[in-house]
Amino acid sequence: MPELPEVESIRQGVAEWVTGRQIGSVTVMHPRAIRRHPAGPDDFARRLIGATVTGTRRRGKYLWFPLDTDDALLCHLGMSGQLLIKAPEDPDGPHLRIRLSLDDPDHELRFVDQRTFGEMLVSADGAEAPDEIRHIAPDVFDPGFDPAAFTTALRMRRSHLKRALLDQSLISGIGNIYADETLWRTRIHGGHPTHTLTVELVSELLANLRDVFTEALAAGGTSFDELYVRANGESGYFDRSLAVYGKQGQPCPRCSTPIVREKFTNRSSFYCPQCQPVA
DNA sequence: GTTGAGTCCTGAAAGC
DNA sequence: TGCTTTCAGGACTCAA
């Protein structure tokens, strides 16, 4: 499940292979992969063919490839999306959704997505900042991220903390795994009312979030199965460092109390009932 | 503004 | 063994 560290690992992995490369051909194997490109696969391909990729950028879980046409190829990996650099002669595999050939005879870019929650689209004039993600807030590593503004916005919410952390219009890049890990490090329950949070606690939360992301990025991301791999096909190994996510019944690394799993906003949440008492 | 439910989808795992 | 059901997740929509 790609969250910020996984998406950033993938961005770094594909950058050297696509930057400066001209797109040769585009094949859309599954229409759902471009469902937010309403003009259809022919238009999708027409806008890409002949364009040169000028870089790779990311905001939260979205990444995009600015093009020399001022358009951008925007991508969200959803639950199971992968961007892979492959040799053209490598077998397609059953979940190949989009293939982009480059002016590099030995490599091509493939969008592979088992569960088809991921998508690509061409954003018109989106090279600098695609319109389609203008509602996505900066992530914690974005130079435009304002901790004071985030703290104010969070405390003005009448919601629960975990739900707010997963709201990409408030802060981006956080998914279920890193939300649970950050909450555990901050010793706070996801159901904590946002309007009762102190400034100091939000500051501690953000510091822990940065730490979790930084450590995960250094590990190449979290891989539970083959659904997340880096551009070179290798798995990340941060799952070995997870304290609570997926650890129900196992001892809390801090106090040895068994980790609890419960449904929260239609998602599984994992927490230590001793370290993170219900608010 | 916020919540909760529903939708999309696939494949593994569990249940029968 | 084979079929059916459940589950996992992110983004989005919609009714309340």
Describe this structure in words.
Belongs to the FPG family. With about 280 residues, the protein is an alpha+beta fold. It folds into two domains: about 5-135, N-terminal domain of MutM-like DNA repair proteins (Alpha-Beta Barrel); about 145-270, Helicase, Ruva Protein, domain 3. Helix content is about 25%, strand content about 20%. The strands form three sheets. A four-stranded antiparallel β-sheet has the order 1-6-7-5, covered by helices on one side. It has a four-stranded antiparallel β-sheet with strand order 2-3-4-8, with helices on one face. Strands 9-10 form a two-stranded antiparallel sheet. A hairpin with a 5-residue loop joins β3 and β4 (about 70-75). α1 crosses α6, α3 packs across α6 (about 200-220) and α5 (about 175-185) crosses α6. It is elongated, with a radius of gyration of 20 Å. The mean pLDDT is about 90. The protein binds a DNA duplex (16 and 16 nucleotides) through loops.
Give the tally of β-strands: 10
Strand order of the largest sheet: 1-6-7-5
Mean pLDDT: 88
| Rg, Å, rounded | 20 Å
Q: Order of SSEs, N→C?
A: HEHEEEEEEEHHHHEE
| Percentage of residues in helical conformation | 25-40%
Terminal CA distance:
28 Å
**Tell me, what is the CATH class of the largest domain?**
Alpha Beta
User: How much strand?
Assistant: 15-25%
Instruction: State the CATH architecture of the largest domain.
Output: Alpha-Beta Barrel
Shape assignment: elongated
User: What number of domains?
Assistant: 2
Low-confidence stretches: none
Number of helices: 6
CATH topology of the largest domain: N-terminal domain of MutM-like DNA repair proteins
CATH superfamily of the largest domain: MutM-like, N-terminal
